[in-house]
Amino acid sequence: MADENNNQGGSETSSAPAETQRSPRPAGGPRQGGRPGGGGSREGGRKFFRRKKVCKFCTEKIDSINYKDVRLLSQFVAESGKIVPRRLTGVCTQHQRQLSEAIKQARNIALLPFAAGH
Ligand SMILES: [Zn+2]
Q1: Residue ranges of the alpha helices (H) in 14-92?
Q2: Cross-strand partners of 22
Q3: Which domains are seen in the chain, by residue range?
Q4: Are 33 and 84 in contact (CB under 8 A)?
Q5: What is the pLDDT of residue 32?
Q6: d(CA 29, CA 6)
Q7: How far is the CA of 25 from the centre of ligand 1 (A)?
Q8: 94 C-alpha vs ligand 1 centroid, how far in Å?
Q9: How far is the centre of ligand 1, averaged over its atoms, from the C-alpha of 79 (Å)?
């Protein structure tokens, strides 16, 4: 049980924040693994959401993936620290290869974890 109860009287002087709201999630950015929320037509009973078939790097015309771009790389690394298979990300073969190389380099300089909860 939590000790800090919010008394509605307000007579107590406490240094607690006025209202305990649910803290918003830190760090914006595209959510991964989101569910399709209330669309018009649903695709069949697929468990995994389908992305565009073209790979992100091809569409954005990135020919070389910078291993220092953690924000980019982390989009392709699962929470466990594993590289997300390209059938889930839709990245093409060439870019997936570059991506995995970049992720490995990033790991080596400790930008990305090898595995979570180690
Ligand atoms: Zn590509």
Answers
A1: 56-59, 70-74, 86-89
A2: none
A3: 56-108 (4.10.640.10)
A4: no
A5: 57
A6: 33
A7: 31
A8: 6
A9: 23
Q: Return the exposure string of 73-88: e unless at least 16 CB atoms fall within 10 Å of the residue's CB, then b.
A: bbbbbeeeeebbebee
pLDDT in tens, 32-44: 555 555 555 655 5
Give 85 Cα–ligand 1 centroid separation in angstroms. 14
CA of 114 to the centre of ligand 1 (A): 24
Backbone angles phi, psi at 107, to 5 degrees: -65, -40
Contact 84, 76 (CB under 8 A): yes
Give the whole-angstrom CA distance, residue 75 versus residue 90.
12
What does the alpha-carbon distance between residue 65 and residue 69 come to, in Å, rounded to a whole number? Answer: 8
pTM above 0.70? no
